[in-house]
Amino acid sequence: MRAMIRNITLIFLLLLIINVLYLPHHYYAKENDCFKQANENELWYDYLLPPENSSIRESRITHIMLHFISNVKEKPHNPYQVEDIYQLFQKHHVSSHYLIDRDGTIYRFVPEYRVAYHAGSNLFHGFSTLGKMNEHSIGIELMAIGTKEEMTPFIREDIYNFIHWKNIGYTDEQYNSLDKLLNNIYSRHSENLNILGHNQYAPFRKTDPGKLFDWSRIEK
Questions:
Q1: Which residue numbers are catalytic?
Q2: Which residue among 52, 54, 90, 155 is least packed, with the fewest CB closer than 10 Å?
Q3: pTM of the complete model
Q4: What is the pLDDT of residue 16?
Q5: What does the DSSP assignment read for the chain?
Q6: What domains lie within the chain, and their CATH numbers?
Q7: pLDDT tens readout for residues 49-80
Q8: Using one digit for the tens of pLDDT, what is the confidence trace for 156-209?
Q9: Please, what sign has the CA dihedral across residues 118, 123, 124, 125?
Q10: Contact at 8 Å (CB) between 47 and 82?
């Protein structure tokens, strides 16, 4: 009799342990699955910069400009933290409308109806006034690092040599997300938008998105 009671008690305790340890994780996994499912149709996540990092747009959008960005100068071992880029933008009073992470996640830093400070000034088809290209463009940053030649104006050669090869260039996930984002932008603008790289706009001071960017991977 005592043995039976002991066995029943052990079974009860075992069931209690399973209930405590397994079921909460089971339901938590379901909640996570539902969360992921609910966000599958969302193209981007909002991670909006403060208003002082942008301004009201008063001109029509005519261009889309592509850039690469990282925090390789400060963290060559871990250059792709979204929070670091956000803080860099705040610190230097610059911005872009979108940022595409290495895994293809898209973050919106500035709404398109506001001007982001991503292009700077240069002589390019009438956009010679400081900030004028900004007023007419959407800026897209991709988390990436270019060739050694492209990066040496910004970081030392020994820092570049420390970078893991997987962190150089672009990922398939980024190309896929960029293509989706561009198609989304095109669908919302009646104008035929011109797409260009930062290096095409400012060839004497900028190298991004660089030689490692495969323009054939995006289609209009």
A1: 141
A2: 52
A3: 0.78
A4: 46
A5: -HHHHHHHHHHHHHHHHHHHHTHHHHHHHHHHHHHHHHHTT---EE-PPPGGGEEE--S---EEEEEEE--TTT-TTS---HHHHHHHHHHHT---SEEE-TTS-EEESS-TTEEE--S----STT--STTHHHHTEEEEEEE-B--HHHHTTTS-HHHHHHS-GGGSB--HHHHHHHHHHHHHHHHT-SS--EEEEHHHHSTTT---S-TT--GGG---
A6: 35-217 (3.40.80.10)
A7: 999 999 999 999 999 999 999 999 999 999 99
A8: 999 999 999 999 999 999 999 999 999 999 999 877 899 999 998 888 889 999
A9: positive
A10: yes
- What type of residue sits at position 213? F
